[in-house]
Amino acid sequence: MTVEGSNRSRVALAFTVLVAVMTAHELEHVIQVIQKNAAGAVCPNDCRGLLGFAFDVEWVHFAYNTTIFAGLVAVYVVGRMWRREWRGQVGWVLLSTGLVVQGYHVVEHVEKLSQWFANGGHSPTPGILGQRLSLVELHFVLNTVVFVLVVGGYVGLGFHRLAWGRRTPARLAAATGLALVALLASAWIWNERPPTIRLAAGVHQGPIVLDSPTRLVGEPGAVVWNGIVITSDDVVVRDLEIRGGEYGIAVDGAENVLLQDVAISGATMDGIHARRSSLTIRRCSIRMAGDYTQGIDISFAFDLPPSRVSGCTVAGGQEGIVSHMAHVDFRKNSVRETTMRGIAVTEMSMGTVARNEVEDTVGVGIYCGDYARCTITDNVVENTRPDAGSDDGLRQGVGILAHFGADAVLERNLVRRSPGGIRTWYEATIEYR
C-alpha cells in the first residue's frame, strides 16, 4: 500500500468512528423529540434522551460539540480536502457545509456555556436562537443538519468503502464490544431516572412530602387534600388538583422544580409558596380567598437561577403573583380580583413582567418596588379600582407603580380604566422605550 493509500485508510477509519459517535448522538436528539411531542414528557426535566439523566450538563454538551468540530477539521486537514481531486465531488460540498454548520453549532454552545457559568452552573441557557425557539427542536434541527451533511460527505467521498475494505475480525469484535457497552450503559442510566408516582382519581390525604427527585402525576380526577411539600431538587408535579392546607404547594430549598397543570384552591396563606428555591410554574389555576392570601409567592432566592411563571390564571387574594429578593420572569399570566396588588416584583428582586393581563384589581395593578429592577412590557392592565378603605394616594387605582428606589423599564403597556394611571414615588424611576 502506498503512503497516500495508507493515509486515506487512517482517515477513513477515524471518519467512521466520528460518524458512529454522531449517529449515537443523533439518536439521543430523536428520542428527546419523541419524549416531548409523542410521549407526553414534561420538559425540560424529562426531555433528556437516554443518557441525559446522567450527562445533561452544559459543559458536557459544549465538550461534545467542540470535539465533533475538531474531529471534522482533523478529517479535513489530514485528508487534505482542499485539493482539487476532492473539490470536484458532491461529497466534498456536503462535508464542507457540515463543517460550517457545526462551527455555528459550537458558537451556540459557547453562548450556552457562558450563560451556564453566569447562572452559577444552572439553567436557563437558551443560547442565541434559543431565546426565540424551542431548545429541543432547535438543537435537533442543528444536529440533524450536520449529521446528514457529514454522512453525505462520508459516503459521497467513498470513505465507507475504504473503511469496510479494512475490516478485520479484531476490529469487528472491538466495534461489537463497544456497541454492547454503550447499550448496557444506556439501559443502566435510563433505569436511574427519577421514579414516577401516579395518583389515581379520588381524594388523597396530604400533605404529600417529596424529599427526593420524583415525578408526581395525577390521573384525571385526582385531588390532593391539605397540600404538597417539596424539599428536593428535580421534582415535577403535574396534572393535579390541590385543595386546602396552609399552602397549596410549598417549595423549600429546592431547584429545578416544575409545577405544570395544577389547580389550587382553598389554601389559607399562599397557593404556591417558594422559599430559597428555583422553579418553573406553567399553566396553573389558583383561586384564593381571604384578606391576607397570595396566589404565588417566590422569595429569598436572589442567588439562585431565575424562577418562571407562565400561562397561569390567579384570582382573588391580597396579591396575585409576587416576588421578594428573587430573579423572576412572569409571562402570559392572567391575574384578577386581588385586593392589594395584581403582580408585584419587590424587595430588590430583578424581574421581567411581560404579556400579562391584570384586571379588576383593587389598589395597584403591577408593582415594582423597594429597589427592585423591573422590565415591564406588553401588559394589559385594566379596571384597577381605588381602595375605598384607604387614604393612601398610591392605592387609588394605579395601573403601574414604581415605588421606593425601584427602577422600571416600560414598553408597549396598555393601561385603561385605571384612574391612577402610571406613577412613580420616592426615588423610583421609570424609563419609557
What does this structure look like?
The protein is an alpha/beta fold. It has two domains: 3-191; 196-432, Single-stranded right-handed beta-helix, Pectin lyase-like (Pectate Lyase C-like), CATH 2.160.20. It is built from eight helices and 28 strands. It has a 28-stranded parallel β-sheet that branches. Helix 1 (3-37) packs across helix 7 and helix 5 packs antiparallel against helix 6. Residues 186-191 have low confidence and may be disordered.
What's the pLDDT, averaged over the residues?
A: 85
Shape: elongated
Main β-sheet description: 28 strands, parallel
CATH topology annotation of the largest domain: Pectate Lyase C-like
Distance between the termini: 70 Å
How large is the count of helical segments? 8
- Roughly how much helix do the residues carry, as a percent range? 25-40%
Low-confidence parts: 186-191
Work out the radius of gyration. Answer: 27 Å
Broad CATH class of the largest domain: Mainly Beta
Task: State which percent range the strand residues make up.
Answer: 25-35%
Secondary structure category: alpha/beta
Q: Give the name of the CATH superfamily of the largest domain.
A: Single-stranded right-handed beta-helix, Pectin lyase-like
The CATH architecture classification of the largest domain is 3 Solenoid
Q: How many independent structural domains?
A: 2
Number of strands: 28
